Amino acid sequence: MTYLCAAIFVHDVAQAKREIAAAAESGADMVELRMDEITDPATARIIAAECILPFIATCRPTWEGGRSQLDEEGRLGILEAAIATNARCVDVELETMRRSNRAAPFEHVIASVHDYQGRPARLHNLILELNNTDAEVNKIVWTARSIRDNAEVFDILKSRRRPTIALCMGEAGLISRVLAKKFGGFLTFAAPDGAGGTAPGQIGIAEMKRLYRWDAIGERTKVYGVVASPVMHSMSPAIHNAAFDATGFDGVYLPLLVEAGYESFKAFMETFVPYEGLDLSGLSVTIPHKENALRYLKEKGADIGQLAQTIGSVNTVIIDRRNGQTGLRGMNTDYAAILDSITARLGIVREQLAGKRVAVIGAGGTGRTAVAALAHYGADVTVYNRTKERAEELAREFDGHVGRVRAASLSELASEGTGEGPPYEVLLNATSVGMYPKVDESPVPAMRMGPQVVVFDSVYNPMRTKLLQMAEAAGARTIGGVEMFVRQAMAQFEAWTGLRAPAAVMRRVIEQRLRR
Ligand code: NAP
Question: What is the pTM of this model?
Answer without folding.
Answer: 0.94
